[in-house]
Automatic annotation (TrEMBL):
Name of the protein in its database record: Oligopeptidase B
Organism: Micromonospora kangleipakensis
Organism classification: Bacteria, Bacillati, Actinomycetota, Actinomycetes, Micromonosporales
Sequence ranges assigned to domain Peptidase S9A N-terminal in this UniProt record: 8-416
GO molecular function, one term: serine-type endopeptidase activity
Annotated PANTHER family: PROLYL ENDOPEPTIDASE-LIKE, PROTEASE FAMILY S9A OLIGOPEPTIDASE
Length: 698
């Protein structure tokens, strides 16, 4: 084999799958054997082939990486967040991959957060955890838990050095700097402290990677003595745990894709039995926030876009309405403070914040100036406060941190993410760019919003190249976000568009429902309609348009490649869920059973089986002229297994050999790709260089 020819595939006996009378032959099923030397050899050969095919872009990759590095203030400091007697913050240092987590005591009369303009350490700081020290000797590092106890003495933190999201939990004494002998392997995200800081609650997963148990650990004891507080046996449900902002209750959240149950334990009685707020009812979702004498309940019981109610904290029972259901206004969460409630919502495709004064006064929405933006509450750990921290951004506005006074309604900008001058030496100016909201018309007449950003003066005659991004699953919304790396595309004349397709949550719960289960194809046709609209409206042309998506958005990429291969000149599919039917048919795989309420259960339902088979990318590869495809995956990904894109690329080469297909596998990373910030920048530079090459702007 040479690196100038496509990678040959080892000859193995094909695997047969039979369901509902349908026999499917899978020639590449053997690639699922992660420990097979031939599998590793195949992935290594694919990487070598990709490296050879993209060698001519090496200088451009270096240029793009350098542009991101130059525009980024590498030594920087987050806006400190106050909790009791300390300011907590994270620093980054030039040349170092990971953040340094710190705190500094609040000084007499100090009300505004101390800010270091040049990112230098604050005077008197205490380093709690240095990610760079923890990562030494490891190719991958990820921090799962970072949870300081209510008394400020203990830090619970967890680490992952493989990318498989199996964390080891430890406890550090912040008064002495000693890491205790307490060590719990194979934990998941989520921890909660008891109010006296003697007990730590945490979560573990089952063999299918489903978070199914909440444990109670007594600080200073061996993990073998830990006690299961709740075990969830229904395979559709996940569990999570957290401490309320009031620090009165430990909350155990139990949820499937469409059903919820919440249990609480008084934080002052960590050995108490969890009390159920409301028993689970199929199709009813609710979440709980503690506020004084009541629990706030955000729910969809008879309220498609959710309503807000409350019940007694002493004896939970009937729900009393607080905010009635308003169709088209999706209530997403509620945050409780002593004198105010803040509701996060979305309407007309935009996020928003509504303030409800406690004990009198009219509710009001906070106004923001731009036509397209994204806003939400940031870290707000203190319950007794009249000021909240929020984060704001848009396609042209860098991430901005504000403190908002809930009484005076005054908003103070604490910090905007610095964007240093680019290659031309000019400071970043949002006025050099313009953002737009456009609408495509789907096949069934539905209007689909599209957000766009480009350099000012970019032509609208179809000559400009463009990238269109999409996701469209799990009610996840692709709200506008700012990206320093994206500036390198915009400055080369590329338009960047986000298609807010059904299956996401941009236009409320109905928008999500119309893009899941047996309506999933709306997600794909919406994206194609959005791409066609960009061409029709003069934004770009099909031979100048690259599509990009990741994870479930990678499924989208594979589906639209089959559905409309003529609509794009290139497709980037990151950690793509392209062999969805095979995965969803196997309940032993991570996440499969919990996913049935999103996609349907093809094991038991022949209609679901037939529907999924009709759109799953791997099942529908055809001898057509595909656009160039770059698939990027990670060997240790536990969410979308590496072999899905590996099989997909192999089948594409076999069935449509005239195409240009590349596979790049991170051999030591997980679902999120490389962990260090410089490694992540290099990965983005690799992808953007490939995109620019496809668009003729390399």
């Amino acid at each position: 084999m040479t690196t100038e020819t496509p990678v040959p595939v080892a000859k193995r006996v094909p695997t047969e799958r039979i369901h509902h009378g349908d026999t499917v032959v899978d020639e590449y099923a053997w690639l699922a054997a992660k420990d097979d030397p031939e599998t590793i050899a195949h992935l290594t050969a694919e990487n070598a082939y990709t490296a050879a095919r993209t060698a001519h872009l090496e200088a451009l990759r270096a240029e793009l990486f350098e542009e991101t590095r130059r525009r980024t203030q590498e030594t920087d400091l987050s806006v400190p967040t106050r909790k009791d007697g300390y300011w907590y913050y994270t620093r980054t240092v030039e040349g170092q991959q990971y953040g340094v987590h710190c705190r500094r005591a609040v000084r007499d009369g100090e009300t505004a957060p101390p800010i270091s303009a040049d990112g230098a350490p604050l005077d008197g700081e205490e380093v709690l955890l240095d990610g760079n020290q923890l990562a030494e000797g490891h190719d991958f590092f990820s921090l799962g838990a970072f949870d300081v106890s209510p008394d400020g003495r203990w830090l619970a933190y967890s680490t992952d050095f493989a990318g498989d999201e199996r964390f080891t939990l430890r406890v550090k004494d912040l008064t002495t700097g000693e890491v205790l002998a307490d060590e719990v392997p194979n934990t998941f995200y989520g921890t909660a402290w008891s109010i006296d800081a003697s007990t730590l609650f945490y979560v573990t997963v089952d063999e299918a990677w489903r978070p199914n148990r909440v444990w109670r650990h007594t600080v200073g004891t061996a993990s073998g003595e830990d006690v299961v507080v709740h075990q969830e046996d229904d395979e559709r449900f996940w569990v999570g745990v957290e401490l309320t902002r009031s620090e009165r209750f430990v909350v155990i959240d139990i949820h499937s894709k469409i059903t919820s149950e919440v249990r609480v334990i008084p934080a002052a009685n960590s050995t108490g039995e969890p009390a159920i707020i409301a028993p689970r009812r199929q199709g009813v979702e609710y979440s709980v926030e503690h506020h004084g004498h009541r629990f706030l309940i955000l729910h969809n019981d008879g309220a498609e876009d959710f309503a807000l109610a409350f019940t007694s904290a002493d004896a939970p029972g009937d729900w009393t309405p607080l905010i009635e259901h308003t169709p088209g206004t999706r209530l997403e969460s509620v945050d409780a403070f002593e004198t105010h409630l803040v509701v996060s919502l979305r309407t007309n495709g935009l996020t928003g914040l509504r303030v409800l004064p406690v004990g009198g006064g009219d509710a009001y929405d906070i106004d923001f100036p731009e036509p397209i933006y994204s806003v939400g509450l940031d870290a707000n750990p203190e319950y007794r406060t009249s000021e909240v921290r929020l984060r704001y951004t848009s396609l042209v506005t860098p991430d901005s941190v504000y403190d908002y006074d809930l009484v005076t309604r005054q908003m103070v900008l604490r910090k905007q993410k610095p964007v240093r001058p680019g290659p031309d030496g000019r400071p970043y100016d949002p006025a050099d760019y313009e953002q737009h909201r456009d609408w495509a018309l789907a096949d069934d007449g539905t209007r689909v919003p599209i957000s766009l950003v480009c350099r000012k003066g970019t032509p609208r005659d179809g000559s400009a190249p463009a990238v269109i991004y999409g996701y469209g699953s799990y009610e996840a919304s692709m709200d506008p976000w700012f990206s320093i790396a994206r500036l390198s595309l915009l400055d080369r004349g590329v338009i960047f568009a986000v298609a807010h397709i059904r299956g996401g949550g941009e236009l409320g719960r109905r928008w999500y429902d119309q893009g899941k289960l047996l309506a999933k194809k709306n997600t794909f046709t919406d994206f194609v309609a959005s791409a066609r609209h960009l061409v029709k409206a003069g934004w770009t042309a099909s031979d100048r348009l690259v599509a990009r998506g990741a994870s479930a958005g990678g499924l989208l990429m594979g589906a639209v490649a089959n559905l409309a291969p003529d609509a794009f000149t290139g497709i980037v599919a990151q950690v793509p869920f392209v062999d969805a039917l095979t995965s969803i048919l196997d309940p032993s795989l991570p996440l499969t059973v919990t996913e049935w309420e999103e996609w349907g259960n093809p094991l038991d339902d022949p209609d679901v089986y037939a529907y999924m088979k009709s759109y799953t990318p791997y099942e529908n590869v055809a001898p057509v002229d595909y656009p160039a495809i770059l698939a990027v995956t990670s060997l240790n990904d536990t969410r979308v297994l590496y072999h899905e894109p590996a099989k997909w690329i192999a089948r594409l080469r076999a069935v449509a050999p005239q195409g240009d297909y590349l596979l790049k596998t991170e051999m030591g990373a997980g679902h999120g790709g490389p962990s260090g910030r410089y490694d992540a920048w290099r990965e983005e530079a690799f992808i953007n260089a490939w995109i620019l090459d496809r668009l003729g702007r390399a």
